[in-house]
Amino acid sequence: MKLILHVWRQKNAASKGRMARYEAQANEHMSFLEMLDVLNEDLVSRGEDPIAFDHDCREGICGSCGFMINGIAHGPLPSTTVCQLHMRSFQEGDELYIEPWRAAAFPVIKDLVVDRGAFDRIIAAGGYISVSAGSAPDANAVPVPKKSADMAMDAAQCIGCGACVAACPNASASLFMSAKTTHLGLLPQGQPERHERVLTMVAAASLELFGNCTNIGECEAVCPKDIRLEFIARLNRDFIKASWVYRQERACGADILGCRRLSSRRLEFLHFLSRLFYSFGDPVDRQVPK
Ligand code: SF4
Ligand code: FES
């Protein structure tokens, strides 16, 4: 199968990039990255610079790979990372435009490789638990309701690939953050930092120049791990509750909603409202052991 590729080439972060045209040969059993490997071997044999792209496991697990194919993050196949995308999804003679993730928070390092360190800094800000989890407990020693465990597992599928940011017109990291806060917030071990976590992660995302979520849904459409938009609703609920209950300066050094200026009576009232609000929320929330 012969394909025409237009690939973003950029020498380094400081230089200007451009699209370069290549003719590539592939067979239907190759993965997309293998097709690029073959093209790179050809480029190297001709003394040209190979196309730089991130990859590691090539099994859809590690989150290293990812770029836009014809404007779609990870390419045309839903729920699939680009390393798991095979050439049988394309036709002889297809013309493909391959570009890196585009977001201010993900600067291009070279060709299709972007710096996703911003995600690491968001995780460092709050995506952890401080309790000692010890060694693996007996399966039923820690009571976790089945619905909570299932949803936490769904959220834990996020591999931090960044496709959600690249697809979002606001370059929002909300789907990524919501996967992390949902995963940890549904389990007993994640409760001690549940509210601090959401405040510090959202504050860190703002500092990294990610945009806000405006419920467009492009992130969910391209996510290779089917992280659901409803997790962003959970993130927002946790954020509202945390903002009402805590003084922001204690959690993240920022007075995000102006709580510093609120009287304790007003805070108590907001706390009451937040509990009321929560009681109409997702029933799974009410199953989380406190
Ligand atoms: S939410 Fe989905 S698209 Fe976003 S980083 Fe996680 S796996 Fe990738
Ligand atoms: S290379 Fe690991 S998910 Fe694609």
How many strands, what sense, and barrel or not for the largest sheet? 5 strands, mixed
Q: Write the CATH architecture name of the largest domain.
A: Orthogonal Bundle
Mean pLDDT: 88
How many DSSP E strands? 7
Tell me the distance between the termini.
57 Å
Percentage of residues in helical conformation: 25-40%
CATH superfamily of the largest domain: Alpha-helical ferredoxin
SSE sequence, one letter per element: EEHEEEEEHHHHHHHHHH
What ligands can be seen in this structure? iron/sulfur cluster, FE2/S2 (inorganic) cluster
Percent range for β-strand residues: 5-15%
- How many independent structural domains? 2
General shape: elongated
CATH domain class of the largest domain = Mainly Alpha
Query: Low-confidence stretches at least 5 residues in length (pLDDT < 50)?
Result: 254-262, 277-283, 286-290
**CATH level-3 fold name of the largest domain:** Fumarate Reductase Iron-sulfur Protein, Chain B, domain 2
Secondary structural class: alpha+beta
Contiguous helical run count: 11
Please characterize this protein's 3D structure:
This protein is an alpha+beta fold. It folds into 2 domains: 2-110, Roll (Ubiquitin-like (UB roll)); 117-287, Alpha-helical ferredoxin (Fumarate Reductase Iron-sulfur Protein, Chain B, domain 2). Helix content is 39%, strand content 10%. It contains 11 helices and 7 strands. It has helices at residues 32-45, 117-126, 146-155, 163-167, 174-185, 194-207, 218-222, 230-245, 248-252, 264-279, 283-287; strands spanning 2-9, 18-25, 68-69, 72-73, 95-99, 108-110, 113-114. The strands form 2 sheets. A 5-stranded mixed beta sheet has the order 2-1-5-3-4. It has a two-stranded antiparallel sheet with strand order 6-7. A hairpin with a 2-residue loop joins strand 6 and strand 7 (113-114). Helix 3 (146-155) runs antiparallel to helix 5. The radius of gyration is 22 Å and the shape is elongated. It binds iron/sulfur cluster (SF4) and FE2/S2 (inorganic) cluster (FES). FE2/S2 (inorganic) cluster is lined by residues 55-58, 60-65, 81, 83, 159.
